[in-house]
Design a protein that fits this description.
The protein is mainly α. It has 8 helices and 2 strands, in the order ααααβαααβα. The chain has a two-stranded parallel ribbon with strand order 1-2.
């Protein structure tokens, strides 16, 4: 999981080559960090993703064996086009309605949620997070829709099991995976 690996990736990153990964937290001023405009937040998120992707690729190569590796990550499609063929990749998205409903229910988002809830205006901070995410993911989704990659979009009428089934079918997995 991309978010779970972030602390490990940040620990091996270098402020000179991955400055955005080291800019998080505005030196502990979480009010300023979460109060940024969604446009500023989205730009920062995109930069951080681009910086982390190279570290994530090295991490995946180190983990590669004869087994299948499924990645829960935010990989720019143009990076995947350079290292794989479309048949070996699938993009999974959720509608913003699902993101708003489920994002902070995830275990890997609890530290962020706790931080936000301690702010002076947690509702506005959360809205900034969602609006910035939407700016990034809508653009990313449009790129993927116009690429040769397969993608699936989860909405309020589908669940994780449905998406898992889609992935299993896409890759012709004979063994059931569990969530």
């Amino acid at each position: 999981n991309w978010d779970e690996k972030y602390p490990e990736h940040k620990a091996i990153s270098d402020p000179q080559h991955q400055p955005e990964m080291h800019r998080h937290g505005y030196n502990g001023d979480w009010e300023a960090y979460f109060s940024r405009s969604p446009v500023e937040w989205a730009a920062s998120l995109e930069k951080s993703i681009r910086e982390q992707v190279n570290i994530a690729i090295v991490d995946l190569i180190n983990r590669a064996t004869d087994n299948i590796i499924l990645v829960d990550g935010v990989f720019p499609h143009e990076v995947l086009e350079c290292i794989s063929v479309p048949e070996r990749c699938v993009f999974l998205y959720a509608t913003m309605e699902v993101v708003r409903r489920d994002n902070f229910r995830r275990d890997d988002k609890q530290d962020m949620l706790e931080c936000i809830m301690r702010l002076n205006n947690p509702e506005q901070a959360m809205e900034n997070v969602f609006r910035a995410s939407e700016l990034v993911y809508v653009k990313d989704m449009e790129h993927v829709k116009n690429s040769p990659f397969t993608y699936y979009i989860r909405d309020v009428d589908t669940d994780e099991e449905h998406m898992l089934h889609e992935v299993e079918q896409h890759f012709n997995f004979s063994k059931r995976f569990s969530l």
